[in-house]
């Protein structure tokens, strides 16, 4: 199979997506454009305000804890008001939090708005994957999840480039030094505009009329999910991944800036290159899952990412670190559509939002804890230990995923299980 064949297969599948799926892809584009800008600039913006990595770590931890703790209430609200309205609520709360995060510099406001940011993310997470599962067939589901990630990557590339380039352009335009706070703040306003644009496609989603889930039934669904051994295993693995991710992912831009002396424009280019490489990987992902199976593909790509993580931690060469970062990001994240698709396939329709909320809760709560601990380590100039911890937990998580689910996948192909 060639790349052109895989790409042609994508185009053919896209034509069969229903209108709601196309609107959700547009929502993903604008939300990810915001994330791309935010991802390059926001951490640097906090440091420009005069705060240290420990406060940054605390803020990121609060976002993750809020996302995790609100996951189950968000899933129940989602079942009650529908996924369209849940996505609308998510965008409105996210925009509200960003207005204050980007304009108020006091520590108290930054921490409080981090809570709202996390709640907004919780709504988006619990509604997204179930919405795609409902608006796809078994035949094109993997392609919808994969193309959604491709759109995400394209928007992230654009956002990373905007986030990396705009501070310099704005600085030149308004006649201030690039080290001043205003160029970074004005750049972040562009991410706020992208969030507001997400409202347009969501408003035009046509969600089918359905009966609201009664309270007793919602708790019955929650109880059945909590007792499921497969769901317990998914939560365990997501918690391990969250520990590893929290140690390093929120601080990649800080690491490149402070340890490898990279500037914002260089970080933007590196991040964009990683997203570009991931697009190619995502396009061939459905072929890999058809050939090897989702579980084996997930486990192998996660294991192969670990050596590149070690290179980032050990090298002092910006070019070697950039290459390792690109490879690590591609391998570790390319299987995300397969993970989300598989998770939705092994549970019933009624359980999807709840399962998504529980896996999100495990991931985010442990990510929050490790993010804060990593921020404290880095504030004390210990930049290596977080990478060691991440390598260990990623290795364990990949092995457990294969061990727990390689046989489950074979059964799931013949019907829903939980």
Automatic annotation (TrEMBL):
PROSITE patterns for the chain: MFS (PS50850)
UniProt-listed Pfam families? MFS_1 (PF07690)
Superkingdom is Archaea
A Gene Ontology molecular function term for this protein is: transmembrane transporter activity
Q: Where are the transmembrane segments?
A: 24-46, 58-78, 85-104, 110-131, 143-166, 186-205, 234-255, 267-288, 300-327, 385-404
Keywords from the UniProt entry = Membrane, Transmembrane, Transmembrane helix
Which residue numbers delimit the Major facilitator superfamily (MFS) profile domain?
A: 20-409
Name of the protein described by the UniProt record: MFS transporter
The record lists the organism as: Methanooceanicella nereidis
């Amino acid at each position: 199979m060639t790349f052109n064949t895989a790409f042609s297969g994508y185009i053919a599948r896209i034509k069969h997506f229903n209108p709601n799926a196309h609107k959700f892809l547009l929502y993903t584009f604008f939300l990810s454009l915001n994330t791309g800008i935010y991802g390059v600039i926001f951490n640097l913006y906090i440091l420009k305000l005069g705060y240290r990595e420990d406060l940054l770590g605390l803020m990121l931890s609060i976002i993750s804890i809020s996302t995790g703790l609100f996951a189950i209430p968000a899933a129940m609200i989602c079942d009650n008001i529908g996924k369209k309205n849940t996505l609308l609520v998510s965008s409105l709360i996210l925009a509200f939090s960003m207005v204050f995060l980007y304009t108020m510099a006091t520590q108290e406001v930054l921490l409080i708005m981090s809570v709202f940011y996390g709640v907004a993310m919780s709504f988006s997470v619990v509604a997204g994957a179930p919405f795609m599962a409902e608006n796809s067939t078994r035949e094109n589901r993997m392609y919808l999840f994969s193309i959604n990630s491709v759109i995400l990557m394209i928007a992230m590339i654009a956002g990373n480039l905007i986030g990396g380039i705009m501070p310099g352009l704005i600085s030149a335009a308004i006649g201030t030094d690039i080290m001043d706070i205003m160029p970074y703040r004005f750049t972040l306003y562009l991410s706020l505009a992208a969030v507001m644009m997400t409202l347009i496609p969501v408003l035009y989603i046509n969600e089918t009329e359905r009966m609201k889930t009664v309270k007793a039934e919602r708790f019955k669904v929650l109880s059945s999910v909590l007792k499921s051994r497969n769901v317990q295993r998914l939560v365990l693995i997501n918690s391990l991944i969250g520990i590893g991710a929290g140690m390093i992912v929120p601080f990649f831009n800080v690491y490149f800036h402070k340890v490898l002396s990279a500037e914002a424009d260089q970080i933007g280019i590196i991040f964009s290159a990683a997203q570009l490489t991931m697009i190619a990987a995502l396009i061939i992902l459905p072929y890999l899952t058809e050939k090897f199976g989702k579980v084996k593909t997930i486990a192998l790509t996660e294991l192969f990412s670990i050596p590149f993580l070690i290179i980032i931690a050990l090298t002092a060469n910006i070019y070697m670190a950039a290459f390792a970062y690109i490879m690590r990001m591609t391998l570790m994240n390319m299987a995300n559509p397969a993970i989300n698709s598989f998770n939705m396939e092994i549970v019933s329709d009624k359980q999807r939002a709840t399962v998504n909320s529980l896996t999100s809760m495990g991931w985010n709560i442990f990510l929050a804890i490790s993010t804060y601990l990593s921020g404290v380590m880095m504030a004390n100039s210990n930049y290596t230990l977080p990478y060691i911890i991440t390598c260990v937990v990623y290795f364990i998580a990949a092995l457990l995923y294969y061990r727990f689910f390689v046989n489950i996948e074979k059964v799931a192909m013949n019907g829903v299980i939980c």
